[in-house]
């Protein structure tokens, strides 16, 4: 582990492909008898070393993570005790509640309760289940029985919202995708018109899902304006901040999140921009009863939902690992200020890249600058007959080169490279190398002639 961590401090020059021996080892049959533990651990490290690790400082693809060291140690400790945070587990339950409260304080969200989940997908599902039960009381028991209901999000919301609508019986086709403005944020007027029209038609609005940091470009929907619409119409406001919400805790970006405290629920993935290892998402709510109304059960073998709620009364899962420990320990060891500074640094890196890229000939950036830490970039080459193919191929070439790792994304029909900075290890030099590689490797498009 120490060797891996030391390696992450500086980017390696290429990705290591699995050796022939390793590939052969990964095809061996079930071992009937055990072998030496040190050999086993060495074999395991060899596999991990030949894998794509998001903790590396030049991993800029999708929305990466950092695998913060103290978080990894917390996981080792937590798994050693193997506590189940379903019913009251003693001090560990208190720690989980404290971690939720610290997280709410960090973000500026007055969370009265919440829980750690396996990811943003499950956190969003959890919040929308609570919203459904508030809008249609008793639907958890009777089903939707043909009631028409809808949820509202921007056209660039994460697809976990559609999945939640599918699973909750709302139906994917009832996800109203609201248009976006020039900065790719949900258009509040269009939202208000859509909700009003649905109410007139007898369709029950379940929730508005604001995205605080879209996966595509990092746009933050106008939370305060959306909260006004929700207040007027009595609709639940959920903020999906799986990626971007930690930036609410950094002074330079906190203004983007004005209105956050008015949301009924929020999602934040601590395994993204709070730097701890997967899986550590959190769903926070202002009113604890909204979760217990949809999740609490009386079963003969489970102490029923009394005054003090059990974790199982407010979540989907029964077997629950102690996900809270890694965030709790990280706050204790590093302090909130270190988190705020690291998030701000990632945003500065994004701004720096945007400005440097915008100043280069043959490199395009979006007309509006990064709100958070995602900077779509596109190589343009005069006379290039197929710039989409060129940029897709440039991305593949950079991945194969191994010095940087970026992923592509399609924005308004165009293929872009979409670097995203969420790693505290990333340096300015790493960012500058990315730009110089895009510039030099993308200069030639002769094979698209
Ligand atoms: C805005 C947003 N919401 C939800 C998710 C889903 O999170 P997870 O992958 O942890 O399930 C993501 C993942 O990237 C995201 O960007």
UniProtKB/TrEMBL annotation:
Cofactor: pyridoxal 5'-phosphate
Keyword Lyase: yes
Family statement drawn from the similarity comment of this UniProt entry: Belongs to the group II decarboxylase family.
SUPFAM superfamilies hit by this protein: PLP-dependent transferases
A Pfam family assignment: Pyridoxal_deC
A biological process from GO: carboxylic acid metabolic process
Protein name: Unannotated protein
Lineage of source species: unclassified sequences, metagenomes, ecological metagenomes
Keywords annotated in UniProt: Decarboxylase, Lyase, Pyridoxal phosphate
A single GO molecular function term of this UniProt record: carboxy-lyase activity
């Amino acid at each position: 582990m120490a060797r891996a961590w030391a390696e992450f401090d500086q980017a390696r020059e290429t990705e290591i492909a699995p050796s022939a021996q390793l590939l052969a080892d990964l095809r061996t049959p079930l071992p009937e008898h055990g072998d030496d533990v040190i050999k086993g651990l060495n074999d395991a490290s060899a596999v991990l070393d030949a894998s794509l690790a998001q903790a590396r400082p030049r991993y800029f693809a999708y929305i990466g993570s950092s695998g913060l060291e103290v978080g990894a140690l917390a996981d080792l400790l937590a798994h050693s005790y193997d506590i189940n945070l379903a019913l009251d587990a003693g001090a560990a339950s208190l720690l989980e509640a404290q971690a939720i409260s610290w997280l709410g304080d960090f973000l500026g969200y007055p969370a009265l309760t919440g829980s750690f989940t396996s990811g943003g997908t499950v956190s969003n599902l959890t919040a929308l289940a609570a919203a459904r039960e508030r809008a249609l009381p008793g639907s958890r028991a009777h089903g939707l029985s043909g009631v028409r209901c809808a949820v509202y999000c921007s056209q660039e919301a994460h697809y976990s919202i559609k999945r939640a609508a599918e699973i909750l019986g709302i139906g994917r086709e009832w996800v109203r995708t609201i248009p976006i403005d020039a900065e790719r944020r949900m258009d509040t007027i269009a939202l208000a018109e859509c909700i009003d029209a649905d109410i007139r038609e007898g369709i029950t609005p379940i929730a508005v899902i604001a995205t605080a940091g879209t996966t595509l470009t990092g746009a933050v929907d106008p939370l305060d304006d959306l909260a006004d619409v929700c207040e007027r119409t009595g609709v639940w406001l959920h903020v999906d901040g799986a990626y971007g919400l930690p930036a609410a805790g950094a002074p330079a970006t906190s203004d983007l999140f004005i209105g956050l405290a008015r949301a009924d629920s929020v999602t934040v993935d601590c395994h993204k921009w709070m730097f701890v290892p997967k899986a550590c998402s959190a769903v926070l709510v202002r009113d604890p009863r909204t979760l217990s109304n949809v999740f609490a059960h009386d079963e003969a073998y489970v102490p029923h939902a009394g005054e003090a709620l059990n974790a199982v009364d407010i979540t989907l899962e029964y077997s629950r690992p102690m996900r809270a420990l890694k965030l709790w320990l990280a706050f204790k060891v590093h302090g909130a200020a270190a988190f705020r500074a690291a998030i701000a640094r990632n945003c500065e890196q994004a701004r720096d890249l945007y400005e440097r890229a915008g100043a280069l000939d043959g490199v395009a950036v979006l007309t509006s600058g990064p709100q958070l830490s995602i900077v779509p970039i596109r190589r343009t080459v005069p006379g290039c007959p197929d710039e989409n193919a060129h940029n897709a191929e440039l991305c593949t070439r950079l991945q194969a080169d191994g010095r940087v790792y970026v992923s592509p994304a399609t924005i308004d029909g165009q293929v872009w490279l979409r670097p995203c900075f969420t790693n505290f290890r990333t340096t300015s030099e790493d960012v500058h190398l990315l730009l110089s590689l895009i510039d030099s490797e993308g200069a030639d498009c002769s094979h698209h002639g």
